[in-house]
Structure formats: structure tokens, C-alpha cells
């Protein structure tokens, strides 16, 4: 199960930067904070967390 299949997920988009093929943008929108909390408990979120901790992410911006 990925983010798109989660009940509280309204939108999950992945975009690739046209000028830098190694740069991606992820946009996730959830119905509320409770849906985000459920998202953060999913196995695929743990994989993403491990990837970030390994240095695979340069910058993360979280908007309320």
C-alpha cells in the first residue's frame, strides 16, 4: 500500500525537475492531521525515512 491508496490522502504527486533529472518534487495532501499521523505509521513511510536519513534528500519543506 502506498500513499495514494491511504484513506485520508487527497493528493500524491511526484514531479521531476526538467533541468535536473536527479531532482524530484513530492506533493502530498491529507484531509487532516490524523490522516498524516496514520500515513507516518505505514511501512512505506519508514522506507522514505530511512532514505532521507541515508542522505538521499537534500531538503524537505513541510507546509501546514
How do the strands of the widest beta sheet line up side by side?
Answer: 1-2
- Shape designation: globular
Mean pLDDT, to the nearest integer, reads: 90
Oligomer: single chain
In the predicted model, the low-confidence regions spanning at least 5 consecutive residues are none
Instruction: Report the sheet-strand fraction.
Output: 15-25%
The amount of helix comes to: 25-40%
DSSP summary, beta strand count = 2
Distance between the termini: 24 Å
Compressed to H and E, one letter per element, the order equals: EEHH
Characterize the largest beta sheet: strand count, sense, and whether it forms a barrel. 2 strands, antiparallel
How many H/I helical runs? 2
Q: Structural class, please?
A: alpha+beta
Please compute the radius of gyration using only Cα atoms.
12 Å
Q: Overview of this structure, please?
A:
This protein has a two-stranded antiparallel ribbon. It is globular. The protein has helices spanning 33-39, 43-56; strands spanning 9-16, 24-30. The chain is built from 2 helices and 2 strands; from the N terminus they run E-E-H-H. The chain is α+β, with helices and mostly antiparallel strands and 64 residues long. The model has no long low-confidence stretch (mean pLDDT 90). The two termini are 24 Å apart. The protein is 33% helix and 23% strand.
Amino acid at each position: 500500500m502506498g500513499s495514494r491508496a491511504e484513506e485520508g490522502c487527497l493528493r500524491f504527486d511526484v514531479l521531476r525537475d526538467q533541468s535536473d533529472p536527479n531532482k524530484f518534487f513530492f506533493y502530498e495532501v491529507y484531509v487532516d492531521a490524523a490522516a498524516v499521523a496514520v500515513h507516518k505509521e505505514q511501512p512505506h513511510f519508514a522506507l522514505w525515512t530511512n532514505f532521507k536519513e541515508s542522505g538521499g534528500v537534500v531538503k524537505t519543506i513541510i507546509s501546514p
